Amino acid sequence: MKQKRKVIILVLLLVLLAAGGFYYQEMAKNRQPEGQLQLYGNVDIRQVEVAFYDTGRIKNILVHEGDRVKSGQLLAELDPVRLQADLKQKKAELLLQQQVVTKMVHGSRPEDIQVARDKVKSLQAQVNDARLTYERLHRMYIKKSVARQQVDDAQAKYLALKNKLLAAEQVLSLAVKGPRAEDIAAAKAKLQAREAALALAKRKLEDTKVYAATDGVIQDRIMEPGDMTFPNAPVLTLARTNPVWVRAYIPEPDLGKIWQGMKAAISTDSFPGKKYKGWVGYVSPTAEFTPKNVESPQLRTRLVYQVRVYACDSRGELRLGMPATVIFNLHQSQKDAGSMKDVCGE
Question: What's the topology of domain 48-79+207-239?
């Protein structure tokens, strides 16, 4: 019986020692090294949704998932046939209006004015002849030498020619003066509208092609050639490769230990032993509860502040969502504040 008690007591002591050792190891693991501050977070990047400005059928997509692209690189294009025809029409309309404005600005040609003058002179001669004939017949009618009908016909011819002369004189006057200033201004305004319509047609034709706005990696190819696309409907998703940062959270008691531009070392489980240079680019002005997906030795119920630690990653090894550890040397001075140029040499 005594032997059993000794065995039980020995087992309990071993369990207590094992529990104490495990607790000590966990405490040592979670204890911050002297002069350092460790934060835990995940790699984050910016994403760009690539879309066309207009509605159309996709003619070609030139990239696939995983392709690295450069800023300004052609990614996809729409079928341009309809817009090419519209552009041709707008060019013809503009050319026509340009001719109209040129004609109005230059005014009447000397030949046109001379033709109008000759017509006035001809009608003046005809009017004088018709007047003389009417007057002669009227005198003869008084003497009862001709019938009243002849006098009336001569008078009607004289008045008709006189009206034609007045109209010809108006045409000559307008030819000499040229178009009205208001008409010229209206024609020029219409020309400006045609120019704007042509510029818009050119812009629409250019928008059948979409280019990479920045360097990055194609993450998703959402649509395929032959699909109909609409404005703001994403065709591709582009993940930017620069900048890359670690989104971490710092407890309020440690907030005063870091500052904007503070240099840091970043490590990941994917590349053991490798450290990436980094610096603090942003500290949130508002507090929040620690996100559930962030592994931290601190209690999750404590308020924390989001910190964005930018990383130097020229080889593109850091990927979206990758867990990372950020280590700060608390002995550095604010005079050593870093930036991309200072830290990465870029």
Answer: OB fold (Dihydrolipoamide Acetyltransferase, E2P) (2.40.50)
pLDDT band at 313 (very low <50, low <70, confident <90, very high): confident
Within 10 Å of residue 150's Cβ, how many Cβ atoms?
16
Considering the entire predicted model, what is its pTM? 0.61
- 205-216 confidence digits (pLDDT tens): 999 999 999 888
| Residues 6+ positions from 287 with CB-CB distance below 8 Å | 252, 303, 304, 305
> Is residue 269 within 8 Å of residue 318, measured between CB atoms?
no
Distance between CA atoms of residues 151 and 157, nearest Å: 10
Separation between Cα atoms, residue 158 and residue 130, nearest integer Å? 5
DSSP alpha helix (H) spans, the chain: 2-30, 81-106, 110-142, 148-177, 181-206, 340-344
Question: Taking a C-beta distance cutoff of 8 angstroms, is the pair 268, 322 a contact?
Answer: yes
- Structure token pair of residue 14: 């071993």
The domain at 33-46+240-344 falls in which architecture? Beta Barrel (2.40)
Distance CA 152, CA 73 (A): 88
